[in-house]
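**Backbone shape codes:**
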Amino acid sequence: MAKTTLIFSGGLAPNDATLNAARTIQNVNLVIAADSGLHTAQKLNMRVDVVIGDFDSVDATALARATTRGAQTIRHSTDKDFTDLESALLFAADKKSERIVIVTAGGGRLDHQFGVVAAMFNPKLRETNVEALWNNAHLFALQGPTTCEFAVAIGDTIGLQSFSNKSERIFTTGLRWQLNDETLANFETRGVGNIATADQVSVTVKLGQLIVTHQQQTKS
């Protein structure tokens, strides 16, 4: 089984859809809380292995409870030049995680939201499958050459957006508008709003960085 790490980011509390999706992640070998992400992990009654950050927003009682249960704590200075989430991602990479799933509500502030996506594309994560459960969406950060496959419902919305200057040699299956050896530039919106036509979607990118988003249909 792949070594899976679950990372709970700080900031706003994830919604119920995110929490329900986090509960379904199987074969988790390592649970990391980035600062106040500990509150979310404890809400799910998950045992946390590592709490990492500058601890500017985590509740002291929650932190004490985690350490009593054996959690390792890694404290950074508040005057650091990286986010708590980035630190957690690099810790997971050092532990040879093969799959990392971030549980997040994006951090609240707009710069924090951009920071979540940027941290997912750290070059040290190139050999790792990096995903995020973000409110009602599932994000995949692809650094080519790589492929991701995921289950969907027919009619779900799938988005593709280049995060590098351009993403090249993109191939897809299971979408209404297929990409077959195509290129997306980072300023293009051609990949927005595609539709799943099968119960499985596959996206391959040979060169560049590509964000893939899966948004489930809103139930009436």
